[in-house]
Specification:
It contains 7 helices and 11 strands. The chain is an alpha+beta fold. A hairpin with a 5-residue loop joins strand 10 and strand 11. The longest helix has 10 residues.
Length: 271
Amino acid sequence: MTDNIPQYVEDLRSEAPAYFAELQKLEPSAVIDLFEIRLTKAVNNVDETLRYHAGTNGLTAPIQFNGNLYPAVPVEVSGFESSAKGAIPRPTLKVANANGAISSLIVQQNYNPLHAEVVRIRTFKKFLDAANFSGGNSTADRDAKTEETWYIDRVSSENLQFVEFELTAKLDMANVELPRRKVTEFCPWKYRGERCTYTGKRYYRVDDVEISKAEMQALATANGLSFNDAVAKFDVCGKRVSSCRLRFPDNQGDNSIVLPFGGFLGARVQA
């Protein structure tokens, strides 16, 4: 290592030379922040990667990098700074949740986001894939980037505007028992699955509006689907206790049995 040059600088220079060279310029290309939330079947109930870019530097269209598409979603991060002294940083990732979109995605797909990997990728506009530019891009470079990997420790705040995740380093994960359930007012059970238990012939949209059998058949015909495939696509549970009550009208009142609702009624999402 060169005298007086920190090891992380030497590592960056050797692992991402094009990124390092751009970083040293007086007027570098625009910085691009990309984020991936990587969920796995073993920990999060699903194999899925959610991708976003922060929409900064006037870039509001989806961005393609390394062949992957990153839609523009307002994202705020803080606390990523590291130090040789003191505690390991616990940064936060705040993702826009317009009208509960992220909350709905998590519960509709039965995601458990706790302990998912969060990868922050930083690159420069000049290194983005050629598909982002009408005339192509001769300086596209999939290796011109830095990556930081963290893990979701908890949902620290959630409302209709944003969801904020508190992150932790891998070193902090050593004594954590996996998996844990997310405390939310939405039901995490798979619709019409073993824990849901609903097998009825009444169908509903995600907003709890009933779909008649005739309407379902019309949807099937319009979309070139069989009736059962149309039910699988258009009969969607809203994951709220009200959705559960519509499907189990007899499980209420003094003589009711317990609704098969998996959410926590006290964990209300704040408006």
